[in-house]
Amino acid sequence: MSEVVVADAVPRRTLWDSIRPYLEKESLGAFFLGVSSGFPFALLAATLTTRLAQQGIDKSTVTAFTLAFLVYNLKFLWAWIVDGVRIPVLGRLGQRVSWMLVVGVLVIAAVFNLALVQPQQDIVWTATAAVMLGFAGATFDIIIDAYRIETLKPYQLGTGSGMSQYGWRIGAAGAGALALVVAARAGWEVAYMACAVFALPAMLTALILGEPARRKVVATKQSLGDTWRSITGPFAEFFQRHGAWLVLLFILVHKIGDTLANLTFRLLFDDLGYTNDEIAIYDIGVGFWALIIGVFIGGILYAKLGLKRSVLIALVLMAVSNLSFALLAAAGKSNIGMAAAIGFENFASGYGGVVVVAYFSALCDLRFTAAQYALISAGASIVGRVLTGTTAGSLIESFGYVNFYLLTTLLALPGIVLFWWMMRTGLVDAAMGTAGEVGPGDARDDPPV
Q1: Of the spans 26-30, 93-97, 202-206, which averages the highest pLDDT?
Q2: Residue 60 scores a pLDDT above 80
Q3: From the CB of residue 14, how many other CB atoms can be counted at a distance below 10 Å?
Q4: pTM of the predicted model as reported, rounded to 2 decimal places
Q5: Which pLDDT tens digit goes with each residue over 146-171?
Q6: pLDDT at site 14
């Protein structure tokens, strides 16, 4: 019988045993996948927010642009195509590899398209271009997540998720910093085009590592009924598990406060009077190193404490991190205050990203990796993104930044309480998928150097 490697009771391991999986080829591959996953999000989030704000677009319109992220929350609707549709000619390289190459090219084209828009002249076309990049980036995430989960062995889920988070933040921070620096010197068009290079790491990783060894192929679809089952199968399998609906509820609510707060930080910095260079130094520079530490500690504590306790700690840290921005807003412009707020928030995000992503990865059935992880990751932030796009700007203008960030802290509490209850009742373990199960060659007792 397969063993599920998700329980809190984990074997005693040395510090070197916790560090060693970071150096394995699967974990290194997860890092480069993360780089390419992070940059489209950055170009749509903080970078586009700054671009629109600097070009005189009002706050309500700027925050409404976060609705472009809703494409990410709808990706489960077409994720089954990535699992089941074979690309002609390129398909000889493998299902995952061929899709990685095709979607990577699509992302590059979408970035160039958004680079050429003129927000002050045509805000509607700007919004359309943002949605197009959102669609391309969401599809990129579908294949990247599936490739990562199927490449990693069960004992690597924590460290692989950590490396993916390292890569994601480097891709997001690198693209964000590059865009700010180039935009100040050569304009936003050139800045966006330069950032398209960040699509290459995932494409090269897929070519080098090849098709994932753990991928389980579903039978070829021939009839209309088979096609329909390929669409509904991933969802039917997930919701047949004990406690699946409560797990989905947790996925939906656990990140409301964090998402609502994160997509408004650049508005706060702009209103406090920070320059592009200051944002690059403190938001990206200090935040990057804080996240590096958070990710590293997250990977170690995941191995030491087990999944459940490490996730609960992450939820508490992410809730408290929003308070730091309430303090920054109350204090006004302060380089030390900004560094402290950004540092704590990125440490919490880095730690949480490792353990929560590892948990979500372990929920997947390896027959439906792309579709199921798309459903899980899409649900993780949809409520927060809808609230951000429809109410964040108005809430900030009505109540001010301090009360807004206090509200985001309160909104994080339901997720903490629900996960604690799921731990107590055993539902966390009961709803796990096959991605967390040990098969032949997947043992964690003696991972390769």
Answers
A1: 202-206
A2: no
A3: 8
A4: 0.75
A5: 999 989 887 777 788 888 888 887 88
A6: 62
- Residue found by looking up tokens 């988070």 in the block: 165
Q: Residue 333 corresponds to which amino acid?
A: K
In a domain, 448, yes or no: no
Which three-class secondary structure string do you get for the chain?
A: CCEECCCCCCCCCCHHHHHHHHHCHHHHHHHHHHHHHHHHHHHHCHHHHHHHHHCCCCHHHHHHHHHHHHHHHCHHHCHHHHHHCCCCCHHHHCHHHHHHHHHHHHHHHHHHHHHCCCCCCCHHHHHHHHHHHHHHHHHHHHHHHHHHHHHCCHHHHHHHHHHHHHHHHHHHHHHHHHHHHHHHHHCHHHHHHHHHHHHHHHHHHHHHHCCCCCCCCCCCCCCHHHHHHHHHHHHHHHHCCCCHHHHHHHHHHCCHHHHHHHCCHHHHHHHHCCCHHHHHHHHHHHHHHHHHHHHHHHHHHHHHHCHHHHHHHHHHHHHHHHHHHHHHHHHCCCHHHHHHHHHHHHHHHHHHHHHHHHHHHHCCCCCCHHHHHHHHHHHCCHHHHHHHHHHHHHHHHHHHHHHHHHHHHHHCHHHHHHHHHHHHHCHHHHCCCHHHEECCCCCCCCCCC
Is 62 contained in some domain?
yes
- Looking only at the bridges linking them, the beta strands covering 3-4 and 437-438 are antiparallel
Tell which residue, 37, 46, 408, has the closest CA to residue 263: 46
The tally of domains found in the chain comes to: 1
Domain span at residue 142 reads 13-214+221-438
Q: Does the residue 370 lie in any domain?
A: yes
In tens, the pLDDT along 306-325 reads 888 999 999 999 888 888 88
Please check whether residue 447 lies inside any domain of the structure: no
Q: Which residues of 312-346 are buried (b: 16+ CB within 10 A; e: fewer)?
A: bbbbebbbebbbbbbebbeeeeeeebbbbbbbbbb
Write down the pLDDT at residue 3.
Answer: 43
> How does 99-110 read in b/e, with b if 16+ C-beta sit within 10 Å?
bbbebbebbbeb
Q: How far is CA 203 from CA 32, 63, 147, 326, 377, in A?
A: 9, 32, 11, 40, 21
Residue 300 token pair: 């170690």
Confidence of residue 12 (pLDDT cuts 50, 70, 90): low
Is residue 248 over pLDDT 80?
Answer: yes
Return the biggest CA–CA distance within the chain: 64
Residue 26: CATH number of its domain: 1.20.1250.20
